[in-house]
């Protein structure tokens, strides 16, 4: 299944949790499931943890790129802009696990003393997880356990235990928080507003001026921020987002290619098919047939 991204009022991602009553999201995925081997850039309040099972991927967090090799992973703190990709379009099999901080806040002191200091630590937007570092290997081990037991009837209880262990290790090894980088924080807020505007209006015709206006900046600064943090232009970001929406429709509906093209914000089926073939190395019809034959293990955002 290829779930589309839903947005909250603040334009953060509304995560499709595995359980209606527990804020857990556990998926195994292949990077080839995304247009041009690149997941959508997004942010959410949940803590995100990635564990590479095989292959390699690059991971962009707030514009900084990390290379994750076989057996390695990354912790992405709450509220950070991030996405995984492969510049050379190489396959990567990985786990993607999202856990909302409130999952551990059974009593207020937990949130006050441990979770808020961790998620609000400006010195810890993310952290590479390497198996050679004992405490980081402990986190990677917990991620594999979360996936192995995801269908167990007591998986929420097991997840609570694993999440507690993960957060305790992160809290114990977190760097001291520096003074706030107000300029960087403002730029990230502007970028979130512009990306959120695209995610809300992608079905419509959108101009660069409108995207810049959503961030209350000029067009030149808009382009600089997209280039710095996303390594792409606003128009490339828009097209990638529309392509990811089309992938969702290809895999989960029986809409025609023309209907999918128009529903995803493309002006015509021919332009959509041309762009899809360029970024996915196959036409939309071939991609749909391949997925229906069950050749992809899943999709995570």
From TrEMBL:
One of its GO terms (molecular function) is sequence-specific DNA binding. Gene3D superfamilies: Homeodomain-like, Jelly Rolls. Coiled coil: none annotated. The keyword Iron does not apply. InterPro entries: AraC-bd (IPR003313), Homeodomain-like_sf (IPR009057), HTH-like (IPR037923), HTH_AraC (IPR018060), HTH_AraC-typ_CS (IPR018062), RmlC-like_jellyroll (IPR014710). Keywords: DNA-binding, Transcription, Transcription regulation. This is AraC family transcriptional regulator. Signal peptide: none annotated. Residues 192-290 form the HTH araC/xylS-type domain. It comes from Candidatus Eisenbergiella merdavium.
């Amino acid at each position: 299944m290829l779930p589309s991204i839903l947005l909250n009022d603040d334009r953060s991602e509304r995560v499709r949790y595995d359980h209606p009553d527990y804020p857990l999201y556990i998926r195994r995925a292949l990077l080839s499931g995304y247009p041009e081997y690149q997941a959508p850039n997004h942010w959410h309040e949940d803590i995100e943890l990635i564990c590479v099972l095989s292959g390699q991927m690059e991971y962009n967090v707030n514009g900084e790129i990390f290379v994750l090799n076989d057996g390695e992973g990354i912790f992405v703190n709450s509220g950070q802009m991030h996405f995984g990709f492969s510049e050379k379009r190489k396959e990567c099999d990985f786990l993607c696990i999202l856990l909302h901080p409130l999952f551990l806040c059974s009593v207020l002191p937990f949130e006050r003393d441990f979770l808020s200091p961790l998620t609000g630590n400006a010195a810890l937007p993310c952290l590479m997880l390497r198996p050679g570092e004992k405490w980081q290997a402990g986190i990677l081990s917990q991620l594999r356990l979360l996936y192995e037991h995801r269908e167990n009837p007591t998986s929420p209880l097991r997840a609570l235990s694993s999440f507690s262990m993960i957060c305790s290790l992160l809290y114990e090894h977190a760097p001291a928080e520096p003074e706030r980088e107000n300029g960087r924080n403002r730029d990230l807020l502007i970028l979130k507003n512009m990306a959120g505007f695209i995610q809300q209006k992608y079905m419509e015709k959108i101009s660069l001026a409108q995207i810049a206006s959503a961030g209350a900046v000029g067009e030149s600064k808009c382009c600089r921020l997209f280039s710095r943090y996303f390594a792409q232009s606003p128009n490339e970001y828009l097209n990638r987002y529309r392509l990811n929406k089309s992938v969702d429709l290809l895999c989960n509906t029986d809409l025609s290619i023309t209907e999918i093209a128009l529903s995803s914000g493309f002006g015509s089926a021919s332009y959509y098919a041309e762009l899809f073939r360029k970024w996915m190395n196959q036409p939309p019809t071939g991609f749909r047939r391949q997925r229906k034959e069950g050749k992809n293990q899943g999709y995570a955002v």
